[in-house]
UniProtKB/TrEMBL annotation:
Signal peptide boundaries: none
Origin: domain of life: Bacteria
UniProt keyword NADP present: no
Gene Ontology molecular function, alphabetical: endonuclease activity
Region entry Disordered, spans: 1-30, 301-328
Pfam families linked: Exo_endo_phos
UniProt keyword annotation of Membrane present: no
Naturally occurring in which organism (per UniProt): Gemmobacter fulvus
Compositionally biased region (Basic and acidic residues): 16-25, 314-324
Residues in Endonuclease/exonuclease/phosphatase domain copies: 56-375
UniProtKB keywords: Endonuclease, Hydrolase, Nuclease
The protein's name: Endonuclease/exonuclease/phosphatase family protein
Length: 385
């Protein structure tokens, strides 16, 4: 599809001001964990008319087989997949972009290198945010019951190394890292109404975190000085387990977490509106495997809007019950097209457009995006007063 023309929020940031990255360590997140935020000097001018904020999420498949490999590939500048990701981000032209499926390192070196290449391509993102995910973090327990410790499935979230397949926020608006709240350490057993596996031991209940990857919220500063809270997550696929349905249950509860937070049922206070919930839920509300009650409840909650972004991947799937125009990922050798990626603004925000970036097959961008990932970028435009 063709992205609509708009007056983007970041347009006012391009009046001769050079955005020079100035790495600095931000104040700690309220969980006590440190976060690195890269910021630039931005000249803010008053808007002459209503602005559009484009918010997007994309599982861009930026995870590799070991630590440091993603950074090396970005720096080599010879990877067709990295080049395709860069072209996709430039075409998307989002003001806020949550990347999922990107390897994490402590100082965000790989993310910074990716952003440097985006700047060179004419799409600067001077603000970046990420926190350490649960992927690859040892539990010290034999969670997969195979008699060995330290396997990828024994980690807090599946991972062959710490930080595998995390998530990160790229922003053209200032990020208030000092006000971020990290829920990544929240214990699964502490979730009200948790669907814990029937074979879960007391030792596992005491250490197993809910988040496969992350659950965090971070405010960004809008042009009028107010804040928009970005709430991001990347859930486990609801498959690759046994009859105990550990992953299916966890996937359900990773979506249900946000409803409990909005209900005020968790130790952390509910975020104040306006906010946007986005990321890869790894679950289609109609087709494929998984316990759909959690994601359906999110989509139906009156505190959230579902703009139902639409695109078209061109594949015919008569066995599917859901609308294929809502699909955000395509697994040709598996379940086919599924809606698994979401951007859900809070109820009071004005949505002026939404879509899934599935270009026609005649558009060169279609092959570019297919080279990048099985997922397509999902975007929502918000009109600011």
């Amino acid at each position: 599809m063709v992205l609509p023309s708009r007056q983007p929020v970041h347009a006012r940031h391009r009046h001769g001001q050079d955005c020079r990255d100035d790495p600095r360590k931000a104040p700690p997140v309220r969980s006590g964990r440190s976060v690195w935020l890269y910021s630039g000097l931005i000249l803010l001018a008053a808007p002459a008319a209503a602005d559009t904020l484009r918010i997007a999420t994309w599982n861009a498949d930026l995870s590799r087989d070991g630590p440091g490999l993603l950074l090396a590939e970005i720096l080599r500048d010879d990877s067709p997949q990295i080049a395709a990701v860069l072209q996709g981000i430039v075409a998307l032209d989002a003001d806020l972009l949550l990347l999922t499926g990107i390897d994490h390192d402590t100082r965000l070196v790989a993310l910074s290198a990716l952003a440097d290449r985006l700047t060179a391509a004419g799409a600067p993102y001077p603000y970046r945010f990420a926190l350490r995910p649960n992927t690859g973090v040892p539990t010290g327990l034999d969670l997969d019951r195979n008699g060995r410790l330290g396997d990828p499935r024994d980690a807090m979230g599946y991972g062959r190394f710490a930080g595998e397949s995390g998530m990160a926020l790229l922003s053209r608006l200032p990020i208030r890292a000092e006000a971020a709240v990290d829920h990544t350490g929240f214990l699964w057993a502490d979730l009200p109404g948790a669907l814990l596996p029937p074979d879960m031991t007391e030792a596992e209940r005491a250490v197993q975190r809910l988040s496969t990857t992350n659950h965090w919220q971070v405010p960004v500063t809008l042009p009028d000085g107010t804040a928009l809270t970005v709430m991001g997550f990347l859930a486990t696929p609801p498959v690759f387990d046994g009859p105990e349905d550990r992953n299916g249950r966890r996937n359900h509860d990773e979506a249900a977490f946000w409803l409990r937070l909005l209900d005020g049922a968790l130790p952390s206070p509910a975020p104040a509106a306006p906010f946007v919930l986005l990321g890869d839920a790894n679950l289609d509300p109609v087709d494929g495997d998984g316990r759909v009650a959690g994601i359906r409840a999110l989509l139906a909650d009156p505190r959230l809007q579902d703009p139902a972004p639409r695109g078209r991947h061109g594949r015919s799937e008569p066995a599917h019950k859901g609308d294929p125009a809502l699909d955000t990922a395509l697994y040709p050798q598996g379940p086919g097209g599924l809606r698994v990626d979401y951007v859900l603004p809070s109820a009071g925000l004005t949505v002026s457009g939404a879509g899934v970036l599935w270009p026609p097959t005649t558009d060169p961008l279609a092959q570019t995006l297919a080279t990048a990932s099985r997922h397509a970028p999902v975007w929502v435009d918000i009109t600011l007063p």
